[in-house]
Design brief:
Radius of gyration: 29 Å
Strand order of the largest sheet: 1-2-4-3
CATH superfamily of one domain: Isoleucyl-tRNA Synthetase, Domain 1
Distance between the termini: 36 Å
Bound molecules: arginine
Helix content: 40-55%
Number of strands: 13
């Protein structure tokens, strides 16, 4: 079973065909004027023009053909030839029952599914995560959930940054502090200790210390460069350190990610594809793509049609080291061998667009994957009120862990203010505050058109009013408690009959779910789904303000409204779940 818009489109398409026109003219969508009609079809104007007919005459013929069909209660011809369609209460009841019992809550599935790798998160070992990493994590995780919900076979990979200069900094700084560690002893025969030589606090301290020192002292920077080159060349002690740094970092990263409800299937990193690089380079040389240029191996990825300068793809630098280009290309080799994806999505800051253009071109030229199967899913920056990328009061970048903590504090404060959680114990209160903070951060981010920048405003994000995560939770919790209280009073939800306009509007809102999901998927734009759940919550609030539900005196009407609530809750929780937002049972 499908949504009403699809069903009506099919009926109209058949009518157009019967009149000798193409089916596409029959497209039906929600009405712009809900007070006049539920749905509209605008095809008559365009179609009539083709055959020199009067649009209103054609509209009358189509109206006659579809009149009384399936869900249609009434069709009117309006203005120059619009078809205004009103659906029957019966069709709306049927649709509600469908949503209530459907495993997808009316969201449908894709007809053609794919095997997709989604590369997101992209945290760097040892460097703390900042608000930019929030965007990649939240958008990427939502796309994973969305694609999976609609039937794609998805693998989400964190793609750790663990191959760059920061690793060299860590090594040299650790050496400066503890030169006696076995990792630095050239005569040590191994095996190296299983216990890490550093804690996460050590890592948090060592990296800023080292990068500050490297800025002052060119020799120190040089030493770090050398250390990375040696690590990349296979220095056993440095490789053992690399493993420890990664393990310690990942444990800490998981804390921040789990606060946000973000999960990965794979925690692979740049360093994991190191052993694939030599073979890949040989292959690129054999294909005549890799060229020697001033001691470096590069690929010329420029094209005649390029309007801007396209710098070469750097395979191996003049020091013999490999960097961001090479590891990304080798990661494609790895993914193709191990996962056989049809498509790869990279959820990374818009400012890396050139990098991905180069990588995708190189991958295509190497015959690894066609360019159009790799997509850079870029996003804008999180700005301060000054319109520049957000900085803390101290002028530094805001760490993700601090952001999470601040959101949690704000959520605790708001819960206290609204007195929502009266008799709730400390543990449950803590859990609720966490869910509110998560909803606030995720919804604030996801509701924007992905590529635009947005202004960071924790006060607004955590508000229970407006287009916010907490407002969404509030709507879900209100329905949950309403259903719970009704059940406690012995009132069960029953079959749904649609009488009021607010009930009709609510079902019509739910009917848009499958389309919102499909659009969100097609455009890789979570805000379309945000818009849907927000509209749904508002339509519910309108009914709530308009009619008694649990307190309705007529038993059949009450059971019907409760049944409607059940369907709304199901779809609301399903939609929010795809956004990675979970509603508590009460708050
Ligand atoms: N670690 C990178 C950064 O922080 C992001 C990695 C994105 N993924 C990729 N395959 N390049 O900028």
């Amino acid at each position: 079973m499908s949504d009403l818009a699809t069903e009506l489109s099919a009926a109209c398409a058949a009518a157009f065909e019967a009149e000798g026109f193409e089916a596409r003219w029959g497209a039906v969508r929600r009405s712009d004027r809900p007070e006049l009609a539920d749905f509209q079809c605008n095809g008559c104007m365009g179609a009539a023009k083709l055959q020199g007919l009067v649009p209103r005459d054609l509209a009358a013929k189509i109206a006659e053909r579809i009149s009384g069909q399936g869900p249609i209660e009434r069709v009117d011809v309006a203005g120059p030839g619009f078809l205004n369609i009103r659906v029957s209460g019966e069709a709306l009841s049927r649709q509600t029952e469908f949503i209530r019992t459907d495993a997808q809550a009316g969201g449908g599935k894709l007809e053609a599914t794919e095997k997709v790798v989604i590369d997101f998160g992209g945290p760097n070992v040892a460097k703390p995560m900042h608000v930019g990493h929030l965007r990649s994590a939240v958008i990427g995780d939502t796309l994973v959930r969305l694609f999976r919900f609609l039937g794609d076979d998805v693998t989400g990979d964190a793609h750790l940054g663990d191959w760059g200069l920061q690793m060299g900094h860590l090594i040299t700084e650790l050496f400066a502090e503890q030169p006696d560690l076995v990792y630095f002893d050239p005569d040590f025969k191994g095996p190296y200790p299983d216990e890490p030589p550093v804690t996460i606090e050590d890592l948090g301290r060592l990296y800023p210390q080292a990068s500050a020192r490297a800025k002052e002292d060119p020799q120190r920077n040089e030493a770090s460069q050398l250390a990375v080159a040696e690590m990349q060349a296979g220095h056993p002690g440095y490789r053992a350190l690399l493993r420890h740094f990664i393990n310690v970092s990942v444990e800490a990263l998981k804390v921040d990610y789990s606060f946000l409800g973000v999960e990965f299937d794979l925690w692979k990193g740049e360093s994991d594809v190191d052993d694939l690089i030599p073979g890949m380079v040989e292959d690129l040389k054999a294909k005549g793509l890799a060229k020697l240029d001033d001691g470096a191996w590069i690929i010329d990825v420029s094209r005649e049609s390029d309007k801007k300068e396209m710098p070469p793809f750097m395979l191996i630098n003049s020091r013999g080291g490999t960097g961001y280009h090479a590891t990304d290309l080798a990661t494609i080799v790895d993914r193709i061998e191990t996962l056989h994806p049809d498509r790869m999505l990279y959820v990374v800051d818009q400012r890396q667009a050139l990098h991905f253009e180069q990588v995708f071109r190189a991958a295509d030229m190497a015959g690894l994957m066609a360019e159009e199967r790799m997509e850079h899913i870029g996003f804008g920056t999180v700005n301060g009120t000054d319109g520049k990328p957000f900085k803390t009061r101290e002028g530094g970048v805001l760490r993700l862990s601090d952001l999470n903590r601040m959101a949690l504090e704000e959520a605790e404060k708001k819960i206290g203010e609204t007195g929502l959680s009266g008799d709730i114990g400390d543990e449950e209160r803590g859990k609720i505050a966490m869910l509110v903070a998560r909803a606030a951060l995720r919804f604030a981010d996801l509701q924007n058109v992905r590529t635009t920048n947005y202004v960071f405003d924790l006060e607004r994000f955590t508000s229970f009013e407006g287009k916010t995560g907490p407002y969404m939770l509030y709507a879900a919790v209100r329905i949950k408690s309403l259903l719970r209280r009704a059940r406690e009073a012995g009132h069960e939800p029953g079959p749904v009959t649609i009488e009021r306009d607010t009930e009709r509007a609510l079902v019509l809102a739910m009917d848009g779910f499958a389309n919102a999901l499909a659009q969100s998927h097609a455009k890789r734009q979570p805000h379309i789904l945000c818009e849907h759940v927000y509209t749904l919550a508002q339509a519910f609030s309108a009914l709530y303000a308009d009619a008694p539900i649990a307190n309705e005196a007529d038993a059949a009407v009450r059971a019907s409204r409760l049944g409607l609530c059940e369907a709304v809750l199901k779809q609301l929780e399903t939609g929010l779940g795809i956004l990675g937002i979970e509603a508590p049972d009460r708050m």
